[in-house]
Amino acid sequence: MSVRVHDLAGGYTAEVITGVAFDLEPGTICAVLGPNGGGKTTLFRALLGELPLRRGTVSLPARPAYVPQTDRTRLDFPVSALDVVLMGAYGRTPAWRRVARADRDAARATLERVGLGDRARRRFGALSGGQRQRVLIARALLQDSPVILLDEPLSGVDAASATRIEALFGELRDEGRVLLVATHDVEQARRWDRVVCLHGRQIAFGPPDETLTTDVLTRTYGGELVVLPGGERAIAVEHHRH
Amino acid sequence: MPAPFDTPFMQRALVEALLLAGLAGVLGSWIVLRRFAFFTHGVGTAAFPGLVVAGPAGVAPQLTALGAALVYAGGVEWLARTRRVASDAATGLMLVAALAIGVVLASDVFASGAGVDRLLFGSLIGLRDRDLWLTAAALGGALALELTLRRAWLARGFDPTTARALGVRVALADRALLLAVAVAAVVALDAVGALLVTAVLVIPAATVRLVAPSVPSLQLGTAALAAVESVTGLWLAYELNIGPGPAIAVLGGGVFAAVVAVTR
User: I want to staple B227 with a disulfide (CB 3.0 to 4.6 A). Which of A102, A189, B21, B153 is the partner?
Assistant: First the structure.
């Protein structure tokens, strides 16, 4: 069951993103590359059904699981890492029932899988940034969807967490899942199977080694792109708004 | 039972205080976690004009107060949705308007015999059986919502942007919580008055929030603290011949300040 997006345009009062089209087979990691405000999160909202489609079609094998950026969560909230992972079972738990024992066991196993089995009772806000990111990934895994959307999962995480997260991506690909990973890091995008370049509209789509040309990166990032000496490598410079 | 609670009116006040403590435990915790404290204060104040017109109109004060509170909540929601006024500004604007309308109605239109002081600050010792039944019903409703929507409130509060992607019915959960808070504020009016609703529904939860490690401990701790503060405030009010609402509010503020100082 593949992920198919055809001529997608979406937005509430105007088209925020337009001309998005790609086809991802099971067992694919696809980078969603673009600058801040380029439409990465907006594309995810469209795939989640939270953004009105003004044109085009989206075909998904199931409701995707979504991993937000950790700064979207409330660090002061009195919840443990296990509490957060269990939220992944809320969608299939009737309102009047407790979360099933099988889901509780699965939540603990998922925490083990991301290397945080010994942090289950730790308050979410007391974990490091990388550990919090892994907890949110564990929550998405408990949703057990064949499609996972990850919004900047490697931004600001420590090296150990980044290594573990990227290894986990490989395992999930081997399980036949489709991962769409939003990033502004060109070098990360080069390591995965496909890349979608966005800047309000789709600039390019395809295998990274064929797609990430200087021309495509220039059109994706505009003035935020720095081409390194030799012309073979380019990095995107993020201008954060304050 | 100490002497002050020998009389029927004080026994009714005691039961009301304990029922309100239960409401504080269930809903006060969510009010604090979801940052609805100003909304709760606004709902209590907005009910004031409804209370003023209840007597002359010959209807139950809870009914008119709830009507006024719902008009207020709808007005705030509409103003915020138009995006022409910020949410907190809309809350403040509607709050002042409700208070001003209530004062004008009380002093110039109905010359309300109830007394503005009592409407604004309540009277735990003037309660009737009907007030207790209404508070008990509100507590029952809040517990039913807690059982069915707790997970939705938790997911929405922890991660507002992702709750829907988890399969949570966000809009339904939010509206149910706001409605429950409005009802809780209205049934608390007779006891603590329009201006001191937060003394029961917010201050104990805000205090326990400083030390509680989980939502269940926050709820149980809030219910216990609200019960102790309310009963102690009631006893102080009886002994010192002061209003129970202000006594509970001062006590709650003092305990909050002490916990802040200890946990710094």
Answer: B21
